[in-house]
Amino acid sequence: MVNCVVVGCSNRTRNKPSETNYKSVGFYAIPKVRLGECQQTAAITAKRRAAWLQRIRRADLSANATHYRVCGEHFVTGRPTYFMDELNPDWAPSLKLGYKSSVADKPAAVDSHNAHKCLSKFQEMILFFIRLRMNVPLQDLAYRFGVLQSTVSRIVEKWLDVGYTRLSDCIKWPEREHLKKTMPMTFRKEFGSRVAVILDCFEIFIERPSSLVARVLTWSTYKHHNTVKYLIGIAHQGVITFISKGWGGRASDKLITESCGVLDNLLPGDSVLADRGFRIPDAVGVHCARLEIPAFTRGRAQLPPAVVESTRKLANVRIHVERVIGLVRNKYTTLKSTIPGD
Q: Are 283 and 297 a contacting pair, CB within 8 Å?
């Protein structure tokens, strides 16, 4: 039989449903100090154990206090929380403690700037890649790595900045001669040898922003959701050669293309393949280049056969681009989830 160690509490494990004082509650051991782990874990577990003993206020408890239990009635949610969640009210018992003041002093907050010091740079990098590739929740990562959830959030944000700084040069606009040498013959036959880039936009869902202005700017009428929109440029081999900065989902394909700087890479004589939403012939023409988009009926009952064939070829290219975007989304599942908007 296990009795609750709190003064005045009569809960015990031997109580039966037929007894008048029966209550279905859990019993939880006084936490131990974890000396075999990192320095931060040892410090916070020692602090938590001291907080439990201080709130129980039993001078007759032995030093080791190994076999004592506290029942769930002394916790707000009915059970203690994760040992790293120091600001949670259930980090230590706080209810019905047998004395007048049932809530002990609030534990001091952990120094947020030192919260992730026990993780090495390699561990931080692995944490970041797990989050990016598998979209593991922050709370799960905090439990796996033994740190605070806020620490995980800061690590992910920091490594995103590092990745952008270090890896942005990996996306390069290819030289025209290189494009010509590597262009497949079937592609050359359909569109010529001057195709510089295939343009398309993709959108990532975000949570509904609290700001009304941000809510309007990110609303996508195409996706019927709040999104962030990116322009992506792809070479004929399927290599990503350009990615714009993020825009609100309300921004049109035309606005993003004319403003993001992708057209500055064009050379005289280049061709740009795109979808109907990219009505930018004038902007492309400024660079002495040519825009290839599917034709519009414009009031006609049907398109001429030659135009239909040209539109079919461009539609096949669009499928090629969507396949590349799909591969990126499948590889990094974070892009398939809803990102916090604020």
A: no
Residues with Cβ within 8 Å of 251's Cβ and at least 6 positions away in sequence, in order, are: 217, 229
| Residues contacting residue 140 through CB under 8 Å, at least 6 positions apart | none
Would you state the structure tokens that stand for residue 103, as one six-digit string? 């809530």
The helix/strand/coil state of 34 is coil
Distances (CA, A) of 218 to 179, 223, 224, 257: 35, 11, 10, 17
**Environment class of 218 (CB within 10 Å of its CB; exposed 0-12, middle 13-18, buried 19+):** buried
Residues 271-318: tens digit of each pLDDT: 898 887 888 989 999 999 988 877 655 555 565 666 666 667 777 777
pLDDT band at 154 (very low <50, low <70, confident <90, very high): very high
User: What's the CA angle centered on 65, arms 62 and 66, to 5 degrees?
Assistant: 140
Q: Are 57 and 93 in contact (CB under 8 A)?
A: no
321: tokens are: 């681009």
Residue with tokens 């047998």: 98
Alpha-carbon span 43 to 115, nearest angstrom: 12
Contacting residues for 96 by C-beta, under 8 A, at least 6 apart: 6, 8, 9, 73, 74, 102
Closest to 124 measured CA to CA, from 116, 114, 132: 116
Checking DSSP bridges between strand 271-273 and strand 290-292, what pairing results, if any? Answer: parallel
Q: Say whether 200 sits in a helix, a strand or coil.
A: strand
Asked if residues 249 and 223 have their Cβ atoms less than 8 Å apart, the reply is yes
- pLDDT recorded at residue 67: 76
Residues with Cβ within 8 Å of 98's Cβ and at least 6 positions away in sequence, in order, are 6, 7, 8, 9, 57
Cα–Cα nearest to 342, from 214, 156, 164, 230? 214
Find the length of the chain.
Answer: 342
